[in-house]
Amino acid sequence: MSDMTTTITRTPTGSEAAAFRRGSGRSVDDRVLDQLHTWWRTANYLSVGQIYLLDNPLLRRPLTRDDVKPRLLGHWGTTPGLNFVYAHLNRVIQERDLDTLYVTGPGHGGPGMVANAYLDGTYSEVYPGISQTEDGVRKLFRQFSFPGGIPSHAAPETPGSIHEGGELGYALSHAYGAAFDNPGLLVAAVVGDGEAETGPLATSWHSNKFMDPLHDGVVLPILHLNGYKIANPTVLARIPEDELLALMRGYGHTPYVVSGGFDGEDPRAVHARMAATLDRVLDHIADIKEQAGAGTLDGRPAWPMIILRTPKGWTCPPEIDGKPAEGNWRAHQVPLANARDTEEHLHVLEGWLRSYRPEELFDDAGAPVALATALAPEGDRRMSANPVANGGLLKRDLVLPNFRDHAVEVPTHGGSVNESTRVLGEWLAEVVRLNPDSFRIFGPDETASNRLSAVLEVTDKQWDAEYLPSDEHLARAGRVMEMLSEHQCQGWLEGYLLTGRHGLFTSYEAFIHIVDSMLNQHAKWLKVSKTIPWRRPIASLNYLLSSHVWRQDHNGLSHQDPGFIDHVVNKKPDVVRVYLPFDANTLLSTYDHCLRSVDYVNVVVAGKQPTFNWLSMDEAIAHMTRGLGIFEWAGNELPGEEPDVVLACAGDVPTLETLAAVSILQDEVPDLRVRVVNVVDLMRLVSEGEHPHGLSDAEYDAVFTTDKPVVFAYHGYPWLIHRLTYRRHGHANLHVRGYKEEGTTTTPFDMVMLNDMDRFHLVIDVLDRVPGLGSRYAGLRQRMQDARVAARAYTRAHGEDAPDVADWTWTDGDTATHDATSVRSANVGVGAAAAASAATGGDNE
Amino acid sequence: MSDMTTTITRTPTGSEAAAFRRGSGRSVDDRVLDQLHTWWRTANYLSVGQIYLLDNPLLRRPLTRDDVKPRLLGHWGTTPGLNFVYAHLNRVIQERDLDTLYVTGPGHGGPGMVANAYLDGTYSEVYPGISQTEDGVRKLFRQFSFPGGIPSHAAPETPGSIHEGGELGYALSHAYGAAFDNPGLLVAAVVGDGEAETGPLATSWHSNKFMDPLHDGVVLPILHLNGYKIANPTVLARIPEDELLALMRGYGHTPYVVSGGFDGEDPRAVHARMAATLDRVLDHIADIKEQAGAGTLDGRPAWPMIILRTPKGWTCPPEIDGKPAEGNWRAHQVPLANARDTEEHLHVLEGWLRSYRPEELFDDAGAPVALATALAPEGDRRMSANPVANGGLLKRDLVLPNFRDHAVEVPTHGGSVNESTRVLGEWLAEVVRLNPDSFRIFGPDETASNRLSAVLEVTDKQWDAEYLPSDEHLARAGRVMEMLSEHQCQGWLEGYLLTGRHGLFTSYEAFIHIVDSMLNQHAKWLKVSKTIPWRRPIASLNYLLSSHVWRQDHNGLSHQDPGFIDHVVNKKPDVVRVYLPFDANTLLSTYDHCLRSVDYVNVVVAGKQPTFNWLSMDEAIAHMTRGLGIFEWAGNELPGEEPDVVLACAGDVPTLETLAAVSILQDEVPDLRVRVVNVVDLMRLVSEGEHPHGLSDAEYDAVFTTDKPVVFAYHGYPWLIHRLTYRRHGHANLHVRGYKEEGTTTTPFDMVMLNDMDRFHLVIDVLDRVPGLGSRYAGLRQRMQDARVAARAYTRAHGEDAPDVADWTWTDGDTATHDATSVRSANVGVGAAAAASAATGGDNE
């Protein structure tokens, strides 16, 4: 495989206006129709060949059973349509010098994508072993969906593709994500009519209300109605045409319809209609772009889209074994599934292959003839070679402001209080300012709710629908993208990252599960891309989950679920990272790291509520660099000796409760030697052989000891900590408190108590686990139980946490002064700060 | 709390035609307008009171700071709209004797739902402590979003609700699910304009193509445009009216628009318009239903829907602190967030509350006056008391055919081969036949692909869009629901179950993650419902995941993810079950159990590919009853002695590979005492204190031993087995093989080799773990390595598994005859059977 960077550079599209020009106005002549039809025939032949043939690739001898693959895998049904569109786009790219990305919703039409990349020459450039010779065609066919070869779907291995498409629904959101900030780019996005039934696709049509006609590119949706899914008709193919047109107009589009190929219609007639329609559509786009450039656009344009109706599996045999094939759901996958079993079936296959007249399509050496490739654009104008589809080639590092400049003052540990995400928001505002065309923030409606509002001081929320005078922070162009669809946010961001830009997605921890499956697909894409030399690293996919499980006072049980971390950790370790920063400075340091990273999925869970600042910036950086470490200032172990107990914590609320527990222990059990460990990079817990961030066993043992009790307060489901550490020494001594599915509450401490992760219960856990302590401190144990009962009773009576809980503060230094039931007047308690924060009205969610 | 069963019975709706009758044709008079407006004012007052008041509920003295809750939680913005619709539905229910279920997409409008249930009397019936007295109102207010009280959203605690609605997107799919097979039921479904932006909601409008106007009920969508989300305008409120109408027509609806309440318009005028529109809409519905009954419907009806535009937070103060409140996003949650902090704010709140004139709404005792409740229907015609919303009340057990009658012959263990799901399909066909109006099968497009096609011999796929002559198994009425949207399938099924019926959802294992978040919400609903005496158990939510991770030959990496099991296991243990049946008889036995169960989520993973039948039906029932057990016929341990090693397995492919490994071991290491354990009910592994299905430690030890090596071949991610067993004795000896994110392959055995879960590697695992064996059998170890290399090389050369692998069979009895590299001619190998199956063409996916 060659390195695409050495052969392909991006041809500039020039000014935005110049990128989209009107066509010649001439209709296509017979010569061009020949070119279109020949490209299409050749691509179809190459597609069928991939599905069926092991050998005899150009049919230069009669087909035999041994020429056919024993296991027939792949999807034919959508492929001729994808090839058809590809051919026609080639023509207009040549004529108008268009910079075009091809997004295929029906990614399972993999053979077509490979065939087109082969025809335009890209395939042989990136995979020199697959040359344009008969031997190259043989290898091209054999590798398809074959052990050790390439997948049957469009995949990272496929030049020109930015997504896999096996899981349907994201074609348009990926397309729009690619178009943002690419004003000269045309993204032609084929939507299958099966895919169109999915929820994510159904709402993604509304992306046009979030496009800026001036600064963003153009998405041209092509709704390809071939009428069938696996075994059923599709909804949009079976509603009256007026309903379908109304639907597309309702989505804000101007629909153009091309229909043909049915009842044996000559494909050349369909080519002529498609070419004429595409010319009208591109002229329409050029007009809109021109008006946008001139500032004469009157409101949101009704962008064109194409409805293309062609038969499913177009050009395969009309009937096989007496049952309809072409134009029927039976053509979805492998229409002739048993090609090797009888001579008759073998003849059907041979007849099908020969119907494309391969002898006219390839020269003696096996290379496609000139007529077959006449439509191929030059260089990176070829859709399979467009560097936009290999975004890492175009990615520039972000200009990042020094996050240290945004550090909060931490006079003593816990000696000040901030809303961490509000601090982060100020830094992010600078990131936005410094990277005006390569960084966006996506979220369902939570930028303000998550206290990132500083960002809106330097940019707006992009919006191309109606405005009212009372609107705030909405504009045609802006860096913040808010639509109440996690699918859209994720899909847009993926498309934006895959084409070489940067961003983050902020959402509720519980509802980020909505995109579990999308995360799967993206993580798999990253995993495979890392093994493909010509795929360049892209910016990481960064989550910021700020409305987290422990602070769902407004929303209760339905909003409590920390399992996204578990879901992510199931992915290949070298593409996932999970961070649990616990205060403003650690959050800043974490996010600086995330925005510099590539090819990861970074999950950052960090509360938006006021909380103590535990670490100065220098301490935060040192802690983040280690990923986990001992809070020496919080423990009281003696130099050179192991502690009696380790209190570990991960997450903001667990850290708070752990330190509160430590303060009680140091008051009440002053001779107990306590070590406090905080884990901010969860993957550090894993053994080093299993994750790149994993600690060595020696390092782990040095922190956690091998035989002392460890009481671990964890943000999420407790068993994840067990899972991550089960190969570690001392695992039997590890006792984890975390979230269990126990029920709703409406005050934060109630919630913590319900899960036995509160300070009082952590003290009890220590008493119960350090040998001999339980009997010596039976009275303390009882007082801790009483404190819990009292705290709960207070919430039931007053509707808020008891002051002794809410206003607890940490004091550095003299441990003897710790008193769990008195307010430390030296510092500001979190409770008071929360009340002050609520008064700002920024707490809507 | 009283038991709803004792107070509420369902009033029959009579014949389908009679259920929807045309109205009187008279417009509403002033008296009715008074009733509408007074209900609405009262419901609004009760809603605001819940959000704000701790005491002084009827404002019978001036409001003081202590009357106001210290923490203000809840969502006002959507609430007046929900109350408005509720009042108007009451009127038409009374007039037309309608059987009506109210589904609220904006479930966070919880105070409104509670207020209406209180007003119509239902609330005090199910919660007698909340009486219709001043003290009752005080308690009603205080409990709302208060520690120990009720959640801020509609919830299981809310009478009349079938869903929580905190996670938006599922209102319409739940509504349609409720309407299926309820021909006399009107489901009024409010869709918020925020919710309308979600993907699942955007596609759920198309549910009308899957409704049978004759045998199903009617869904009346009410798109409530209040214009704003948390901090943004909504898309559908900001597109031109003609686009919005086109969109609704494109979705196949007849839209009716009601708009009002803006710029201080008198609400009575809006009441008049809404009443008139609702009458037209219900007459339209009555006409459609009449035509359906008469058989005169011409194609799919364009069912009416209502677009209702009212101000967000309607009737709250127009401005608060100089910023717009009513009609603005600021009214989303608590418009006056700091009501206690100043006298001025307290006065704003008091003025707002008094604007409803509570002194006119409640009598001296504190009960709502007659005018306020005049619109309440009687008994179970009240929407909050409709037993459809407490589906367990209506649930009848399924009539289940004897699954033993569908048993496959198993002459010897592994002595026959079947596609398990095809066998299940024959039994399910009987289930369908015997339960013609209470059982449905839902799936994205996979009933045939998953080989349940026998079902289509007795029923059809329900479809109310256009038909073509070539269509098969489509009909206006049918028990199979196929739309390419996992969200829709899940939402429909949830709605169907929540209203007292039964069903199952069949899908791809990898893509069921699409509904992770929906599963969360449903599981939480079940968990809480179990604690509410008046909520009756509903049928379990049953999954059948047949295109599983190990058999993605067609699709590769993107279709490989067994993590749904992990996700489900994170839920509260008493609502989840995971089954891994490994052959036809165990699958039959499993599904019989699942369809009899209530209040669970049952995840059944069972392959559709041909595989050996390992157990006779008697053995299968015994094994399923235990949930896990020793395959005595497969091991060679001596009576009264523990084995040298335990080979455990869970899942169909792991079971096959484990038995193949055992056959090698028995041939090659005949003195090794092997025990084979199979786990079919995954929850049996958990300690009995943690899951109702958990084995006691003594039972676990008796099966797995406490100190022998256990080599466990598991269907999913291996760490789940560690997690489930980490408290067990002998956990340190447990070695799990399972799926890791390693990459795509295209033959089944390649896939198991890639994950080191193949027979040869399991043998190596045993050699490496039984003390002394590795050195004694170094030669065997090398041969196993060589066998793997050879097997992989064969796939690379031929594109299919090597015959010695594919055609391996098990032979009971004489262990000396086992030979891993020869074909057992006595039995049919899986490879041959798979080839035969492929030849049937039933393998499309």
TrEMBL record, chains A, B:
Domain Xylulose 5-phosphate/Fructose 6-phosphate phosphoketolase N-terminal: 28-393
Biased composition (Polar residues): 1-14
Gene3D superfamilies: 3.40.50.920, 3.40.50.970
Gene Ontology biological process terms in this record: carbohydrate metabolic process
Its EC number(s): 4.1.2.-
Cofactor(s) of this protein: thiamine diphosphate
Domain Xylulose 5-phosphate/Fructose 6-phosphate phosphoketolase C-terminal: 608-810
InterPro entries, A to Z: Phosphoketolase, THDP-binding, Transketo_C/PFOR_II, Xul5P/Fru6P_PKetolase, Xul5P/Fru6P_PKetolase_C, Xul5P/Fru6P_PKetolase_CS, Xul5P/Fru6P_PKetolase_N, Xul5P/Fru6P_PKetolase_ThDP_BS
Keyword entries, A-Z: Lyase, Thiamine pyrophosphate
Ranges for region Disordered: 1-22
Record's protein name: Probable phosphoketolase
